[in-house]
Amino acid sequence: MNTEATLLVDSHCHLDFPDFRGREEEFIALMTTNQVGHALIAGVTLERFPAVRDLAERFPQFYAAVGVHPDTEGDAAEPDVATLVALAAHPKVVAIGETGLDYFRLTGDLDWQRERFRVHIRAAKETGKPLIIHTREAAADTLRILHEEGAEQVGGVFHCFTETVEIASAALDLGFHISLSGIVTFKNALQIKEVAKFVPLDRLLVETDAPYLAPVPFRGKLNHPALVRHVAEEVARLREIDLGILINHTTTNFNRLFNINNNA
Question: With 80 labelled, which of 4, 96, 126, 178 sits at a CA distance of 20 to 30 A?
Fold first, then answer.
């Protein structure tokens, strides 16, 4: 297989989580061994963002995104447009998110969640940086709000995609990319395998969502960016293409989407 042209990129992970604290060099070494050049660490709360930013500052392999996860409640700080714009001004912050809607974990009146989503979209439009979208059991509202807020002006990625081909098509029509996680390697994930074959190569990304969703054969264990290689291998297998072709496309897509001027 021709895999030497480009290194893989893990387009979404959470290396600021406690599982990785103090072990960054260990996981970077594993990335190198598995030909993974970079990883994007997504924000989940404003309180945790300094740790995300610190990792991106300390290690050239990492980029950052700033945002508040849609199911964050309690005493966590609520984002506003000005705060997100200010934090996104850092040169290693390449996206706004993760953001979106999650109707799986929460019930009741979720207008606050939809308004938070709108705040992130408005911040993305002001900064010109793309969005990282989380959507779970909320696809119709997610797409509706993206339309209403003009999110096609900045685009972005539906991360850890678990929806249907039809929802993927609607996201693509809005100018968004689709990112596949280790779920695509699960035996019964037939819907996601169909999406993996459907999405155009120039709109496809791969990710781990580490520390969650480790791919087969590591399912149930700690996930980390090096394991994105197993995601890429499965997508290449499903599409019946050389792994090197898949790597070249997904890395090129990552660099273009997040305006990164390197050959990751």
Answer: 178
DSSP-derived letter for residue 212 is S
Q: In this structure, what DSSP letter does residue 137 have?
A: S
Length of the chain: 264
Q: Which pairing describes strands 36-41 and 93-102: parallel, antiparallel, or unpaired? A: unpaired
pLDDT band at 262 (very low <50, low <70, confident <90, very high): low
Which CATH architecture group holds 8-257?
Alpha-Beta Barrel (3.20)
At 100, the amino acid letter reads: G
Digit-coded pLDDT (tens) for 39-97: 999 999 999 999 999 999 999 999 999 999 999 988 899 999 999 999 999 999 999 99
Whether the CB-CB separation of 92 and 66 falls below 8 Å is answered with no
Phi, psi of 19 (to 5 degrees): -55, -25
Beta bridge partners of 62: 39
Per-domain residue ranges of the chain = 8-257
pTM here is 0.95
Token readout for 55 is: 């990792």
